[in-house]
Write a structure and sequence with these properties.
Chain lengths: ~250, ~350, ~70
C-alpha cells in the first residue's frame, strides 16, 4: 500500500522547464499546478503568459493558454474575460512585462477592476534577455544596463517600483499581497495568497494581485541558496511582505 | 430588410457589425472614427438583450490586444481607429496574423504624418496594405466607396477573418465615415458557438488544450511556421480579389481610384463621357490582394491613378500594368478632396481631347 | 513502513533547496552527473517523509511516499 505525501500535479505535462536551477518561477508554477488540480480549473481555466523567462510556460500545463505580446497580457486577458466571464483567467507576468512595457495595461486593468487574478513575479532584473536592469531593480544593484560599481542610480533611473502598493490604491483591485518563496513556510503563504486570488475571481470580485519576490540566481550572479538569502537581506527591505489590501468582503 | 434609411457611414457600419454578431468592441476614441465606439457604447446600454460589451481601452495598443484576446475565445470582436491609433495597433496586427486570430480592424484614414489633420486622406495605404507591423505577414484589406458598400463589407470582414483565421482591415476615410447616404442595412447573421471555432480558448478539461503562441522554437520550426502562414496568404490571394470596372471597352484613359476618391473619379468619368472623352475606371475593392488581373492585357492606354496621398497605390498599379510608362498620378495632400472638375482637368491634361 | 523520496534524475538542476530545507538533513549532493551536467542529490537513512523537499523543488522533480 503506497500513500503519497507529494506527487507531481496532474495538470503538468512531462516537459522539463527551461528555468535556471533555483528559479522562483518553477516554485510558483508548481503552486499554480497544485491549485489547478485542487480547485478543478482545467475545465474553464485559461492561462495568459508574458514575454520573459516564463514565456514558454504554456508547455508545462495541459491548459488552454495565450502567450501575449510583451506587456499586453492584462489587455489580452481583458478581451478573454469580457468575451466570456465564466472562464477563470490567470494572468502571469514578470517585472519587465508588468512594470515596464505593460504599465498602462496593468494599471488600467486595475482601474476597470477586471475580474481576473494577476500573479506578478518580481525578481528585480530582466532575466530572459540577459540580466538588464528592471524598474524593480534595487538602488545600487548591478545589472548589464546598470553596471558596477554604481549599479542602479537614482538620477538616471529613479527608484524601485512597488507595484503591490500602487495597485492597492485602485478601488477596482480588491486584493493585493506581497509574498515570497524562499522557505517552506513562505511557500505555504504564497500558495495561500494565490488560492485567495483565484477564489476571489471565482466569486466574481474585482482584480486580485499577488506579487512574488522571486530568486534569480543567474541574474543576481549568486548560487541559488545565496539568492534565497538575498531576498531576506535586501529585497524585503524595499518590498515588505504582507497583505497590502484586502477589500474582498466589501466588494460586491 | 428592404427599408432604406439615411445613415452616417460610421454609424451604419457599427450597426452592420452588431448585426454580424460582433458584440464586443474595444477601442479608443480618435477623430474621425469616434462615432463607432459611441454607437457601441449606446447600444450596450439601450439594447441589453443583445449582450453587447463596449470597453473604452486606455490606448490603441491595449484595444488591439483586447480584440486579439477576445477573438481567441471564438467570439467576434473589433476596433476602429485612425492614423496615429492605427500606427499603435501594428504590433498586434502582426501578432494576430501570426496567431491565426480573426480580429477585425476598421481604419478611418485621416491626413498624416504625425498628429496630422482630421479630414479625408488615403495616406495609410502603404501601412495597411504593405503591413505596418513587423515580419512577413498580410491582412486582407477591403476598401468600400459608399456607406452601403461599407455595411456589406463590414459584415463580410468577420466572415473572411474567420474563414482564413487572419485579421481583416476595413479601410475607410473621414469622408466615407461622416457622410450620410441612403442605405439598406444588412440583416442579422446567425452565430456559431464560439467554443466550436478552430483553436478557440474555452477551458480544455480533458480535451486537447488550445494555445495561441507566436514565439519561435528555433530556425527550423520557425521556417515551417512561416511557410504555413505564407500558405494562408496564398489562399487569400487566390480567392479574395475584388474590384469593379467601368466603361473599359473603348476607354483611352482609365482612372484608377479607391474609397472616397473613387466617388469623385466616377463623377469625373461621367462628365468626361458627356464631353465625348473615352474615359473608364478600375476601382480596386480588395487592396490586398491587389487586383492585378484587372490590369492585365490593357495595352496602349493611359492609367490616371488618383489618390488622396503622395502616390501609394500608384506603385501597385505600376507593378500590375504591362508598361509602367502608361501610368500617371494625380494626388492631393492636406485633407482637401479634389472635385470631379479637378480630375477632369487632369484627364484633359493627359491628352484627352473632346472629339 | 518505508519512507521513499524519488528524485527525477534528469529533471534536477542542483539548486540545493531540498538539501537546505530537509529537516533531518538526509539529502546531500550525489556523485552521478545528469544529462545537463547537474549532480542530483541522494537520500540517506532517517527520512520522515515530511514532503518538504518536494515542496521546495522548483522543478517538481521529487515524489515522496510511504509504503508498507
Amino acid at each position: 500500500m503506497r500513500k503519497y505525501v507529494y506527487k507531481r500535479p496532474e495538470v503538468f505535462t512531462d516537459a522539463i522547464t527551461t528555468y535556471c536551477g533555483g528559479c522562483g518561477h518553477g516554485i510558483v508554477n508548481k503552486l499554480m499546478a497544485e491549485l489547478i488540480d485542487e480547485i478543478g480549473l482545467q475545465e474553464n481555466g485559461i492561462l495568459v503568459w508574458p514575454i520573459g523567462c516564463s514565456c514558454l510556460s504554456d508547455r508545462y500545463y495541459n491548459m488552454d493558454a495565450y502567450m501575449a505580446l510583451h506587456g499586453r497580457a492584462p489587455a489580452a486577458a481583458t478581451g478573454i474575460k469580457r468575451a466570456d466571464p465564466s472562464k477563470c483567467v490567470i494572468v502571469y507576468q514578470g517585472d519587465g512585462d508588468l512594470v515596464s512595457e505593460g504599465m498602462a495595461e496593468i494599471m488600467h486593468a486595475g482601474i476597470r477592476g477586471e475580474k481576473f487574478s494577476v500573479i506578478f513575479i518580481n525578481n528585480a532584473i530582466y532575466g530572459m534577455t540577459g540580466a538588464q536592469m528592471a524598474p524593480t531593480t534595487l538602488l545600487g544593484q548591478t545589472a548589464t544596463t546598470a553596471p558596477a560599481p554604481l549599479g542602479r542610480i537614482v538620477d538616471n533611473s529613479g527608484y524601485p517600483v512597488k507595484m503591490a502598493e500602487i495597485l492597492a490604491e485602485l478601488p477596482g483591485v480588491v486584493y493585493s499581497e506581497r509574498v515570497t518563496v524562499n522557505s517552506p513556510a513562505r511557500i505555504v503563504q504564497c500558495k495561500k495568497a494565490l488560492k485567495k486570488a483565484i477564489e476571489l475571481q471565482l466569486a466574481g470580485k474585482g482584480m486580485s494581485f499577488v506579487e512574488v519576490l522571486s530568486p534569480c540566481p543567474t541574474g543576481w550572479k549568486m548560487a541559488p541558496t545565496k539568492a534565497l538569502d538575498w531576498i531576506d537581506d535586501e529585497m524585503t527591505k524595499v518590498y515588505p511582505l504582507g497583505v497590502i489590501k484586502d477589500a474582498s468582503k466589501e466588494a460586491e | 430588410m428592404g427599408k432604406k434609411e439615411f445613415l452616417q457611414g460610421n454609424q451604419a457600419m457599427a450597426e452592420s457589425a452588431i448585426r454580424a454578431g460582433c458584440k464586443l468592441y474595444f477601442g479608443y476614441p480618435i477623430t474621425p472614427s469616434s462615432e463607432v465606439p459611441e454607437y457601441y457604447a449606446k447600444a450596450m446600454i439601450e439594447r441589453p438583450e443583445e449582450g453587447i460589451t463596449f470597453i473604452q481601452a486606455e490606448t490603441e495598443v491595449s484595444a488591439f490586444n483586447m480584440v486579439a484576446g477576445a477573438v481567441a475565445t471564438g467570439h467576434r470582436a473589433m476596433t476602429a481607429t485612425s492614423g496615429p491609433g492605427f500606427s499603435l495597433g501594428q504590433e498586434a496586427v502582426s501578432y494576430m496574423s501570426a496567431g491565426d486570430l480573426p480580429g477585425v480592424i476598421v481604419e478611418v484614414m485621416r491626413p498624416g504624418p504625425g498628429d496630422g489633420e482630421i479630414l479625408a486622406s488615403q495616406g495609410d495605404y502603404f501601412q495597411a496594405v504593405k503591413g505596418g507591423g513587423h515580419g512577413d505577414y498580410q491582412t486582407l484589406v477591403l476598401a468600400p466607396y459608399s456607406v452601403q458598400e461599407m455595411c456589406e463589407l463590414m459584415q463580410e470582414s468577420f466572415e473572411l477573418a474567420e474563414k482564413y483565421r487572419n485579421p481583416v482591415i476595413l479601410l475607410s476615410d473621414a469622408t466615407l465615415a461622416k457622410m450620410r447616404e441612403s442605405v439598406e442595412l444588412p440583416g442579422y447573421v446567425p452565430q456559431k458557438d464560439p467554443a466550436s471555432k478552430p483553436n478557440a480558448l474555452r477551458g480544455c478539461g480533458k480535451n486537447e488544450p488550445h494555445k495561441v503562441v507566436t514565439c519561435g522554437d528555433g530556425p527550423v520550426q520557425w521556417e515551417e511556421f512561416n511557410a504555413r502562414l505564407q500558405e494562408k496568404y496564398k489562399r487569400i490571394a487566390e480567392n479574395e480579389v475584388r474590384y469593379k470596372t467601368y466603361n473599359l471597352d473603348d476607354a483611352e484613359i482609365i482612372l484608377v481610384a479607391f474609397g472616397s476618391m473613387a466617388r469623385v473619379c466616377e463623377s469625373a468619368m461621367k462628365m468626361a463621357r458627356e464631353k465625348g472623352l473615352k474615359v473608364g475606371m478600375i476601382r480596386p475593392i480588395s487592396l490586398w490582394p491587389f487586383p492585378d488581373k484587372a490590369f492585365e492585357g490593357i495595352i496602349g492606354k493611359k492609367f490616371l491613378v488618383c489618390e488622396l496621398n503622395a502616390g501609394q497605390m500608384v506603385q501597385d498599379v505600376k507593378l500590375a500594368v504591362e508598361n509602367k510608362r502608361d501610368v500617371f498620378f494625380y494626388g492631393k495632400l492636406g485633407g482637401t478632396t479634389p472635385s470631379p472638375k479637378n480630375v477632369l482637368a487632369e484627364i484633359v491634361k493627359l491628352g484627352g481631347e473632346s472629339k | 513502513m518505508k519512507n521513499v523520496v524519488e528524485i527525477d534524475f534528469n529533471r534536477c538542476k542542483e539548486c540545493g533547496y531540498c538539501i537546505r530545507f530537509c529537516p533531518k538533513g538526509v539529502l546531500s549532493k550525489g556523485e552521478k552527473v545528469n544529462k545537463k551536467g547537474y549532480y542530483p542529490p541522494v537520500v540517506s537513512d532517517g527520512c520522515i517523509a515530511c514532503g518538504t523537499c518536494a515542496r521546495v523543488c522548483p522543478d517538481t522533480a521529487i515524489t515522496v511516499y510511504r509504503e508498507d
